[in-house]
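Human: I wish I could look at a protein chain and see how it folds. This is the protein in question:
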Amino acid sequence: MNITSKVKSLMQGDFFKKIVDSFFGKVASVAFTMLFSLVCTRLYGAEVFGQYTFAFSIVTLLSIFAKAGFDNGLVYYIPKYGNKYISLSLFLSSIISAVIIIISMFFIEDTFVKWMIPLIWFSALEQIFFGIYRTTDRIKQYFFINGFLALILRIALAVVFYFVFEPTAFYVGVAVYLSFVFSNIIYIYSNLNRIKRINYEPTFVKYSFSLVLAAVMSVAIDRIDTIMLGQMIDMKTVGIFQISTQIATFMTMILIIFDTAFAPQISKLYHSGQHEKLREMYVKCTRLLGLIALAALIFLVTFSDFILSIFGQEFPEGQMVLILKLLGQFINVAVGSVWLMLSMTGRPKFHIYGNLLACSLNIGLNFLLIPHYGMNGAAFASMIAIMVTNIIGYILVAKEFKVKVYRFF
């Protein structure tokens, strides 16, 4: 079957529609996120943006514990049991969020970080609602709220606060707070018919909790270098590093868009016994993802200096960071949805072990390299961690599902 036939076969049916919805939603989300970063760097400067990024990275990491794997647990269970465990997920996540927020207040000394900590609850709820929307075929609605309305509000508030108040990280934080409150109110209102009485089920909770460590490791791989740079270097470096990282995520966006629609599809095909169709879909889609990732890599590396200069004269310092991050993300996209294939088919332990290895590598290399090479050392550590974990994931999928995506590997 030639490339044209493969593309046509993928474009047929409801799955392709979900991909399209996810594509336009995620593109809008990434575009407006980058616009928010551009506004912050141009108006508030690299140091203030770095201060915000450092605090929000801690919030993002802790919110993984707060959502407790319920977002992916719902993706796995909703095809089988409908809305049965949605209320339980929201209730338990709120309890866990409150505990984490209270404990964090005793251990965190930085005033701004401490002020940002309650965002953990809003962030955790948003991720759980994301799991609900993607599994109930409402990806378009979610991205309209999260990737358009909330971010437009965030950007507008950041601009208004700059001209009305003193341009500090505090007002960037206020803009983020209000956008999260706004989006979560809409999520709750739009899903009132799904939020009913709480049905406690130990099996569901156990399955969801088993995904927490994998999720923590995944976010740690993505955020730990930012946090360590903030502790070991300075906030200006964090700001430059974050912009390079965000640009590199343009390549990852290709995989995220696909995963948004593919995760529920994996669960449905697996539970319905259509294993051959699942294998075929994974192989075709991964080959296409690899080609798109290669084109994106060439384009972004070629124009890396120009793209970074858009954010300000300080940001081309992060060119090597961007290139190293892009190389790591290329491997990530080229192997496809390996960890989803494992976790959505009842094999979450593989994801845990793979991410634990990657996170350990990332932290260890960061400790060794950041003191000597700064943000370039952090980027190299991240690249190695991402490459290693995804190559291992690819080998595991090839073995478990008896598939071979590429001719020689």
Q: What stands out?
A: The mean pLDDT is 84. DSSP finds 17 helices and no strands in the chain. Residues 213-409 form one domain.
